[in-house]
């Protein structure tokens, strides 16, 4: 009986030590809410950007071309269809803007303020599920790696972020293909199903994931750099302050800095991904035949014909879009995670962590708590671990009440 009690208590300690203080469902709600906030705040900026681009280069937005639309979370391939439907020609409305703020004011004044969110509904169909999958997978993978202790704690955010991005992009890629077909060809749901079936028969099941390669080429390194830098900054703040949670402005700043570093490091991958995704769209969805879109051939062509600087074009616009998007997303996500943790504590749910269990790293070392697989004397982990004590305290109380003073649980 003693062994069973000890095993249960030790398992509970390990689960809480992973830092997963809320349920997966609550993680999904937190990430989905953050995705909504990011989309609503960042979409007007991209609408204005596309309208300015269409004004400067009208030929690039004519039939037979594609462009990328981003709501602050994901890039979406859009086809230029020359007014086949009202929802697909918002980027071609006649206007004359002098700059970003002038465009924003004139669009809101003459076309209605809702025009600043043109194109948002169809992109949310993918952006929110992709973000929910991505953030939830990241949290679960990070907890899993922390539990099995196979890789160093410093590398855990990098590996978890990369794998989570691969999983999210793979799940969403077929939906992106179908959505783009619906927008470009104005198909009914029955026609979409027939088109997908025909595509699978002609080119195989893998044709549904066409274009996934260039997406992963940019997004996987981005996730690796972003989560590594963000978790490092988060760990440093918590370690020096002795707190267990970031304040909103701290999460916002760490997210912006992490997004900036990741955007800068992966800019060449973004240039290649954008060009190849547009080429694939114009070949597969519109029928505008171009040259080969093989990734490495495209890299060689850009380097040979345009030089190395071409791989770093658009740095400032990318930073302007990515940094605030990452900041809004992660700070909202952290805020709602903490909100649910407090609610769980107040409601007495089994997944809650009592407020007295949030201790600083120095306190945990003094009391004998340490990460799985290490001793109190080992070097402190760079990723904050939450000590969990309530289980052992309740077990000790039960043992004393039954007169069994010889049985001791871990941490007692």
From TrEMBL:
Its main location: mitochondrion. Residues 1-13, 403-412 have a biased composition (Basic and acidic residues). Gene3D superfamilies: Mitochondrial carrier domain. Solcar repeats lie at residues 26-144, 152-236, 246-339. It is found in: Mitochondrion inner membrane. Residues 390-399 have a biased composition (Low complexity). GO terms for biological process: mitochondrial transmembrane transport. The keyword Repeat applies. Residues 1-21, 364-412 are annotated as: Disordered. InterPro entries: MCP_dom_sf (IPR023395), MCP_transmembrane (IPR018108), Mtm1-like (IPR045315). Keywords: Membrane, Mitochondrion, Mitochondrion inner membrane, Repeat, Transmembrane, Transmembrane helix, Transport. It is a multi-pass membrane protein. GO terms for cellular component: mitochondrial inner membrane. PANTHER family: FI19922P1-RELATED (PTHR45760). Belongs to the mitochondrial carrier (TC 2.A.29) family. This is Solute carrier family 25 member 40.
